[in-house]
UniProtKB/TrEMBL annotation:
The keyword Transmembrane helix applies. Belongs to the TRAP transporter large permease family. The complex comprises the extracytoplasmic solute receptor protein and the two transmembrane proteins. It comes from Bordetella petrii (strain ATCC BAA-461 / DSM 12804 / CCUG 43448 / CIP 107267 / Se-1111R). It is a multi-pass membrane protein. It is found in: Cell inner membrane. GO terms for molecular function: transmembrane transporter activity. This is TRAP transporter large permease protein.
Amino acid sequence: MSTGALFLMGVFTVTVLIDMPIAFGLVLSCLAYLAVYDTAPMMLAAQQYVSGLDSFTLLAIPLFILAAQLMNGAGLTQRIVRLCAAIVGDIRGGLAVVAVLACLMFGALSGSGVADVIAIGSLLLPAMARSGYDKGFSCALVGSAGAASTIIPPSIVLIVYGTITDTSVGKLFLAGIIPGILLGGSLIVVAIWQARKHNWAGGALFSWAELRAALVDAVPALMVPVLIIGGIRLGIFTATEAASSAIVYALLIGFFWYRTLSLRAVWESLKSTGEGSASILLLIGASALFAWILVAEQVPQALSQLLVNWTDSKTAVLLVLTVVLLLLGTFMEAIPVIIIVAPVVMPVLAHYHIDPVHFGILLSINMAIGANTPPVGVDLMAACKIGGINMMQTLRPLTWMMLAMTTVMLLLTFIPELVLYLPRHVQ
């Protein structure tokens, strides 16, 4: 690896260690590299930053965020939680199972782990505390389930990955369905086991009448994933156009079906969307600049050659990349990791004939695990803030949840057909 690449990563490491915001650290390390090595005019840094944002597909990010905000304002979150509670009934640990199911369902609306944790956690964490659930367990479960929901379409993480690697976002959305269900299932197993072990309460008694009423009330919310996935797969619209359609749909059901959406709520949704989108796009531009320098320093070629000289096994390469991603995920957020790592590993994927759709899902699961791993752990941090506890209180129950998610990731690594079946067979 060249001295320039080592200098770039060294400066960035220092910015991380001094707790500088990731976006600023990426830009500063790039500017320091250009100042010291003078390989390109400084003006190119601004051009590459803007170029990283110049993508029609990336418009889907603020649009999906706005759609989720509007749906939350229209009361879809409460209806999803009610439906999940009606399905689960009074089984032991029912509230914990409801939390996982609600996170997965809301994830199919929002595409954002943090938004999922805040929306579902605000409703269920107080209820779980009143029912005697350990707060550390509850926060760890909601944080993990919220992160797992980012694998389910419409995932912002998958949109970013698809844009950077020129991989079909529609195929990535389909590929995320089975892994998302498996991740949710693994967390439900942990939740039921822990609930039985500690004798935590279930929910209300199961009632067919309540289930029918909750299902009818939640049908408009359940139609959102059908609208998005169906529209993309049928070629009616792109991922970005699907996001726009979701906004129109949210406005229609909020104003005219449920009649719970107000102009004030729309304004608050627009403000929240602006703030959330700005932070994400700031990271994307900075990460694109950083990745541009890595490519210019031929880091992808060096990594590819290193792995080729070490092994011929595709599975071994995936496991090595998994370890690297898990380490990166402990101190960096998902989007900068994706934008930095994806261009670097694409030549490796091509050499070993690894499907980029398969790798994209594995990368996303790695980032979901990282979103609950200290010291960063943004999803876990959001859940702890809502639950009013310190992150350290979640570590013991969190270990079991991270083990369950890692087991699913390894299963998908060794059986890629679990990821690729729907993209290959759904036309």
